[in-house]
Design goal:
Helix content: 25-40%
Strand content: 15-25%
Mean pLDDT: 82
Oligomer: single chain
CATH class of the largest domain: Alpha Beta
Low-confidence stretches: 1-34, 152-160, 223-229, 359-374
Number of strands: 16
Radius of gyration: 23 Å
CATH architecture of the largest domain: 2-Layer Sandwich
Structural class: alpha+beta
Largest sheet: 6 strands, antiparallel
Length: 460
C-alpha cells in the first residue's frame, strides 16, 4: 500500500498569477523588494496519479512568513506568494517534510547559494538516545531540549528553535549496540543500551548539536547544578541522575552517522506488540508548539508505557484511511484530515503495565511486584477460555482508562469537566485537541497495525 499523497491541487497553477521573473542567466529574481530576506529550497512531490516525482522551488519570506512555489520542469510559477503562517523557518531544513495546501513536499536541498550559505552553517542536527533506565524521564528530557535550552528570544511565532525531526523507539541487539558505539568488544554501555527498548530522537535547529551536547554533559556531571543557560531543575523538572546513560552525538559527522543508523536501518525492528494495547497520536500542532515532551511526560506520569513510538508524516491518503471511521460522523472530519497532514505526528502504542501480560516474571522486588507476579501466575493457570475473557477485559480497560486520561474531544468541555486531562491542558479546538486516542477496545490493535505495520511497509 502506498501512503504517498494522491491528492491533486487541480487548478492551483491556473488560479495563481506569476510573481517571479527569469533573469538573463535563468536565475529567479523575486518581484518583492530586494531588501527582503528570501530563502529558497528545492522540494519534491510524488505525483501518485502520474507516478512521477515533480520538483519545485519553495521560497520563504521571513518578513511576513509568506511562501511561493515555482515549477522547475515547466518553468512557471505554481503558487503565487501568499501568507502561510503554519510554516516557520524552523520547519525548513534539508530532509524535512512539509504540507502546503495538503500537498506533501520533501525538502531535498537548498535552492540557491544564498540559502545554503546562510543556513547550512547554522542548521545542524543532534541525535539523543534515551536508554531503558532513563525512559521514564524521556518526556522531561525532550521538553528541556525543545523549550528550556533552545529558547533565546521567544515570540508567539517562534516560541522555540529546536524541533523534533525524527523519533523512533527500538530495541537493539547486543551486536547492534556494539555497532552503534563502534566497538569490537562487549562493553557495559552496549549491554545497557541493548537491555531493553530505547528511544532515538533527532533534533534540528541552529547550533543544536553543540548546545545539546553541552546540556547533556552538564546534567550528567557531578557538579551541584547545571549552567543557568540550560534551565533550572524547577523549570525542566530534571533531577541529578535522570539522564544517566543518555547518549548524545558529539559532532556533526557523528550525528549524520547515528541518524542513518537509527532511521535508515531496516535491520532495526519495530517494538510494537499489536496486542492488548491502545494508540495515542500526538497531533501536528503539539509538535509545532514544541510541547511533545510535556505531552509525553503527562502520559508517562499516568502509568501508561509506550511499547512502540515513532514520528510519521502522513499524506492525505494515509490520514483519510486512518480517520475513515469518522467520515460522515464528525462534522470536523475534513478539518481533522487537513490538520493531520499539516505536519508530523507521533504515534504511540501504549500498554497498561499492570496487566497480566506485561507483568514481570523475574523475582519480585516489592510487594506490588509480587502481587503482579501472582496475577501473572494465575493467568497462566487459567483455561484458554478464561484467558481469552481475561484478555478482552484487560484490553477494554486499557483503552477506556486511557480515554479518560485524554478527556473529552472538545477542549472547552474538557477544561470545564476534566481540567487535568490531556486535552484540557494542551487542546485548543475540537480539531487541534492535542491527541487522538483509540475509541473502541477492538480498534487498539488495528490502529497499532496501521502505523507500525502498514505504514512501515509502505515506506520500505
Amino acid at each position: 500500500m502506498s501512503h504517498r499523497n494522491s491528492s491533486s491541487l487541480g487548478g492551483l497553477t491556473s488560479s495563481f498569477s506569476s510573481s517571479l521573473s527569469l533573469g538573463a542567466s535563468g536565475a529567479l529574481s523575486p518581484s518583492s523588494p530586494a531588501a527582503e530576506v528570501r530563502y529558497c529550497f528545492l522540494t519534491e512531490w510524488f505525483d501518485a496519479t502520474a507516478q512521477i516525482i515533480r520538483k519545485y522551488n519553495l521560497y520563504y519570506y521571513v518578513i511576513d512568513s509568506s511562501i511561493e512555489m515555482y515549477d522547475l520542469k515547466h518553468r512557471r510559477t505554481f503558487l503565487k506568494r501568499c501568507a502561510y503562517p503554519s510554516i516557520s523557518l524552523t520547519d525548513l531544513y534539508v530532509g524535512a517534510s512539509i504540507a502546503v495546501f495538503a500537498r506533501q513536499l520533501k525538502i531535498v536541498a537548498y535552492g540557491d547559494e544564498f540559502t545554503a550559505n546562510k543556513l547550512s552553517s547554522v542548521q545542524s542536527r543532534s541525535i539523543v538516545v534515551i536508554p531503558t533506565s532513563a525512559f521514564n524521564q524521556s518526556g522531561r528530557i525532550i521538553d528541556a531540549i525543545c523549550t528550556s535550552i533552545s529558547v533565546t528570544s521567544p515570540t508567539p511565532s517562534a516560541p522555540h528553535r529546536f524541533v523534533v525531526s525524527r523519533l523512533r523507539m527500538c530495541r537493539l541487539t547486543l551486536q547492534q549496540a556494539q555497532q552503534f558505539y563502534n566497538e569490537r568488544v562487549e562493553s557495559a554501555r552496549a549491554r545497557a543500551l541493548s537491555s531493553g527498548p530505547s528511544l532515538a530522537i533527532e533534533f534540528v535547529g541552529s547550533g543544536v548539536q553543540s548546545v545539546v551536547a553541552s546540556f547533556v554533559a552538564a546534567q550528567q556531571s557531578s557538579s551541584s547544578s547545571a549552567p543557568s543557560s540550560f534551565g533550572s531543575e524547577s523549570k525542566n523538572g530534571l533531577q541529578k541522575g535522570d539522564m544517566a546513560g543518555v547518549h548524545v552525538s558529539q559532532s556533526a559527522q557523528e550525528a549524520e552517522r547515528e541518524s542513518a543508523f537509527f532511521f535508515e536501518n531496516s535491520t532495526i525492528l519495530s517494538t510494537a506488540q499489536f496486542h492488548r494495547c491502545t494508540v495515542c497520536v500526538i497531533k501536528p500542532h503539539i509538535l509545532a508548539q514544541g510541547l511533545v515532551g510535556r505531552v509525553l511526560d503527562h502520559i508517562l506520569s499516568s502509568g501508561y508505557q509506550p511499547s512502540a513510538m515513532q514520528l510519521f508524516t502522513l499524506d492525505r491518503r494515509a490520514a483519510e484511511e486512518f480517520l475513515e471511521v469518522y467520515k460522515g460522523v464528525l462534522p470536523e472530519y475534513n478539518a481533522l484530515v487537513e490538520h493531520m497532514v499539516s505536519g508530523p505526528v507521533i504515534a504511540m502504542e501504549l500498554v497498561d503495565p499492570h496487566s497480566s501480560s506485561s507483568s514481570s516474571s523475574a523475582r519480585p522486588s516489592s510487594r506490588r511486584q509480587a502481587r503482579e507476579m501472582g496475577a501473572t501466575q494465575s493467568f497462566q493457570q487459567m483455561s484458554p477460555e478464561e484467558r481469552e475473557m481475561q484478555a478482552m477485559e484487560e484490553l477494554e480497560n486499557t483503552v477506556n482508562v486511557f480515554r479518560e486520561i485524554c478527556g473529552p474531544s472538545d477542549p472547552e468541555v474538557a477544561r470545564a469537566l476534566r481540567p487535568q486531562t490531556l486535552r484540557a491542558v494542551f487542546g485548543q479546538t475540537k480539531v487541534q485537541n492535542a491527541v487522538h486516542c483509540t475509541d473502541l477496545p477492538e480498534d487498539g490493535p488495528l490502529e497499532s497495525e496501521y502505523f507500525f505495520s502498514i505504514l512501515q511497509k509502505s515506506k520500505a
